[in-house]
UniProtKB/TrEMBL annotation:
TM region positions: none
Origin superkingdom: Eukaryota
Residue span(s) of domain Maestro/Maestro-like HEAT-repeats: 3-108
Protein name: Maestro/Maestro-like HEAT-repeats domain-containing protein
Entry GO CC: cytoplasm
Amino acid sequence: MAVLLPDIMETLQDVNTDVKMKALVFLRNMMAHMKMEEASLIALQLAEKLLPLFDDESSQVRELSISLFKDVMKTVRERSKKKMKKTVQRVLLPLFIRMNDQIKSVAKVQ
């Protein structure tokens, strides 16, 4: 599965909403079944890929990407927290803006 990970993360940039949704669901399921050490390493890469999805035209993609980001944050281990801190600082403003999203489920997921 680790071999497919870069390709799946790249599909998050796809223009097709269905493709992005399937990739997000796959990544969520994959992260849930990984050991914490593996998930922590992937979390750093994945967090960067999720940020552009917070502004996606699809409310479902926005909601799922924000929810997955929240889950990813929980998997980061101590030694990776410093690296993740910079990403989180960059994400806080877009997340704050999303708290006022017109779609209640997107605003609520935070």
